[in-house]
Task: inverse folding
């Protein structure tokens, strides 16, 4: 419960800080990104603490229903749903990887361009890198 309270305070603080600094997008994003991540963690902790036993029982019953059905139609449904779940997981993995790559390559490309063009100036990196 203590961890939940600490993460909740951090999430609220960072999200409020982001709203206060909406006039500067870089500063706002530096606050919103970790703030929303913490908010999702709080949501996960609430779900876990609130319904851990019920969730475990529900998953166990669902697995039993899916695997006990030996009919062809039931197995086809199981394969179809598993395929959809795998594709959505792959989409999530690919989108996260692309975002990470873009944030890592952007400062390098900007720095290379400035160096090749002999332009002075400091590069403003996202998220206080």
Result:
């Amino acid at each position: 419960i203590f961890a939940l309270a600490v993460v909740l305070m951090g999430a609220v603080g960072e999200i409020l800080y982001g709203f206060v600094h909406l006039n500067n997008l870089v500063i706002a994003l530096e606050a919103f990104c970790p703030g929303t991540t913490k908010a999702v963690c709080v949501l996960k902790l609430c779900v876990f603490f609130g319904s851990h036993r019920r969730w475990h029982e529900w998953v166990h019953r669902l697995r039993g229903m899916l695997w006990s059905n030996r009919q062809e139609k039931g197995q086809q449904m199981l394969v179809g749903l598993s395929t959809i779940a795998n594709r959505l997981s792959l989409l999530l993995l690919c989108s996260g990887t692309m975002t990470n790559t873009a944030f890592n390559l952007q400062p390098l490309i900007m720095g290379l361009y400035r160096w090749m063009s002999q332009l002075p100036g400091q590069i403003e990196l996202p998220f206080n890198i």
Q: What stands out?
A: Residues 72-117 form the longest helix (46 residues). The chain has two domains: 1-68, 70-129.
